[in-house]
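Figure 2 data, in text form.
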Amino acid sequence: MYLRSKKYFPIFIKRFETMAINKLALIRYKIIDGCLRNRMRKWTLEDLIQTVSEKLYEQEGVENGVSKRTIQGDIQIMRSDKLGYNAPIEIAERKYYYYADEEYSITKAPMTEADMNRLKEVIEMLKQFNAFQYLGDMSEMVARLEDRLYSSTGQTVSYIQFEANTLLKGLHFITPLYQAIRNKKALTITYQSFKAQQPGTSIYYPYLLKEYRNRWFLICRSKKGSNLLNLALDRMITVAECEGSPAWSIPAWPGIVITATCWV
């Protein structure tokens, strides 16, 4: 199959659109899972609908929220064996949803054979897209996925080793920073540089996330200045979106190229 042909390329685009829809469903399952794991609160169906809607807006920019029918369907799928979750979701007093097993989480569920087959299909699809020049930088990601998949299933030993530092601080900021860049939102960041004795809080306009020598950096501009700054994620203390901040256009600096792919 050749993706460059007019016959097959729309098929792959359609399949990726379907994957995007499935991605939102998986995000909803994870949000519901997080709610039900929080046993400090009782969760009604309305509470779940509101929380999922808010999180989807924060994480994916989905503005129309979710319906009651959607959440009910999500709960039904989580309870079933369709995705291998078999979540022990029960209802107390005919309105409060909870996990009967306090230790349960869908993130602890083992991958099913169907999951493995879907991942293999995705990896093969990504390999096909690697033929395109503008997606050539996906090679490392595809190699990571393929190696992790086959080594985790015991089909083969790992034949590739990437530099990694699981103890690196600040990695949990990647998602909110990425969303802020994508949606062009200003951020309030509390940051303590290596030389500073105390952390400081300022407003920044984020432009690009960059990995360099196994550390992550945010290329941004401070509201107080016009020069580009590199903020190390492992020196960040808090990150919060500025409410009501206007969007901005991507600026241009000599020697620095920020392309449209930074926003995808």
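Caption note: Residues 9-37 form the longest helix (29 residues).
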